[in-house]
Structure formats: C-alpha cells, structure tokens
Amino acid sequence: MNGIDRRRLLRLGAAGLLAGALPACAPAGPELPLRIAAGERGGFYSEFAELLADEIVLADPRLRPTVVDTEGSVANVELLRDGRADLALLLADVAQAAPLGELGPAVQVRSLGRVYENYVQLVVPVGSPVRELADLRGRTVSLGAPKSGSTFFGTRLLARSGVAARTLALPLEEAVAALENGRIDALLWSGGVPTPALRALDERTGIRLVPLPASVPGLCGYAVCEQVSVPPRAYRLAGGVPTIGMANLLVCTPALPEDVAATVVRVLVGQTSRLVPRQAVGTQFLDVRTLTGTGTVPLHPGAQRAYQELHG
C-alpha cells in the first residue's frame, strides 16, 4: 500500500470517527462526493490536493473528497466541463482561457482562492550551451504533458518570443528520462520548487534553470503572472535565477453548492500551515493575504460569502 492509499484509508477512517462524535447541532445529511482534479503524480498539484482533501473531511465529515491524478490544468478543465470533477487546480492563464472557448467548448469557472504560485522552470543539463530562451532555437524541448498548463503556457511562450524549437509533449517522468539520456535538450515544467523529480535529477547529473523573462509582449497580459526568483536551496545551481511565477487557482463551476464552497474556503483560511507540501521552500505557497487575488476569475458566491464572514 503506497503513501497516498494509506492517506485515503486514514481519511475515511477519520471521517467515520468524527461523524460518530458529532454533536446534535452539527450539519447532517447524505454523504457528498467531492472530486478534486489535481495533476501528475509526484507534482505539487497532487500533494497539495491530498493535503486539502484531508482537511476538508475533518472540517465536514459529510464530504468524501477524492483526488484525481491528471495531466494538468487543461485536462482539469475538461473534467470540470464534463462533470467528472467538482474542484480543480488550474494555472491562472488556463482558468482565464476556459470561459473564452480557447480550450474547446467554453466552461464557466469560479474561484475558491489563489492557493499558491507555480514557478515556470526551463531545465537543461548543467553543461548545456543553452543560456537563454533564444538558445532553444532549432533544439528539442518537452513542454509538458499534452493536456498540462505547462504545455499551454510553453506554446505561447515560444510563439510570443519567436523561438522556433522542436517541441514534444512528455509527462514529467518521461521528460526527465529523456533529458538525462540526451534525447531532448530541455524540459519545461510548471510547479512548486523544488519539484522532487527535478531535485533527484539534479543530485544524479546536475541541472540548471534557464532565466525566463515575464516581459515577453502579450505573454502575461491576461494572466496572473509576474517575475520571480527561484528561492535558495531549491536546486544546487538555481538560487536567484529569474523566472515566471504563475498564480495557481483552486476553482469549481457555478454548480458547486454554496455551503461546500464556504467549507473549502474556511479550510484554506484556517488550515494554511497544514496545506504546504513538505518539499516546499520559499514562500510560493498558500498565503491568506492573497487568497482572493484571482484576477479576472470571479469568486464563487459561497466563497465570497465565507471570505466576507471571515474578514469582514
């Protein structure tokens, strides 16, 4: 039994114990499934979603959260659209593109909070001649899994920068192996730092992060992104490297019941310190001061009410 299976088993057991101990005035009603579309196994989407699920069931044992591993943000939009997910983690640019029909049939999304910041990481071997984005011209780069936010963003990044690179769409594990054996020249990944798979590669062979400017014309005009620096100790040679930080949003559709949305917000506000994956460094994770900074993605009415009750 792996760590996630044990966690899910413990979650259900804790819910049963709490349900039996609830006072008479506690909310009652049928159990409600709550499917959380996350990301690739081993990434911070997945780990954050597991931590969130643990706290949700403690806050309201009627809810039965399960974490769905996916290729990433674009896949998560599809799950929301098809009714196969109730909550989803999306990069801000994907969340803003979804209702515009840029990812297939339009889907309306509502935010529950800006939960953390992804770092766009352009990774090359330590001895690579690639020193800036333009050096990828004519080289091969994996932009991420086919339906990931990384691929959506990376495609725009290369196009807006005028860099004609050969691109592949590989999940992180495959991309790491391809970079290590020389089949690709670089990989793009959007996630927390350090990402465990990238840190392991750094320890085996050494990696560098290529600086990425947020000033590329048209790149961040409608997205919640900014210039950030990779925190010290993330990887051996990456401290202080400038790159692009992209807000990550926890979203749903307007169909999510208001009381469920309010419960999730209370967890985000009240259990902040328990929602930070263990490998995280720096300050890219949940901050109660920025939860409502969701750009053009409107808050769900239940979330808005909960924030007003909590903060006035």
TrEMBL record:
Keywords: Signal. Residues 1-26 form the signal peptide. It holds the Pfam family NMT1_3. SUPFAM superfamilies: Periplasmic binding protein-like II. PROSITE patterns: TAT. InterPro entries: TAT_signal, TRAP_TAXI. This is TAXI family TRAP transporter solute-binding subunit. It comes from Saccharopolyspora erythraea (Streptomyces erythraeus).
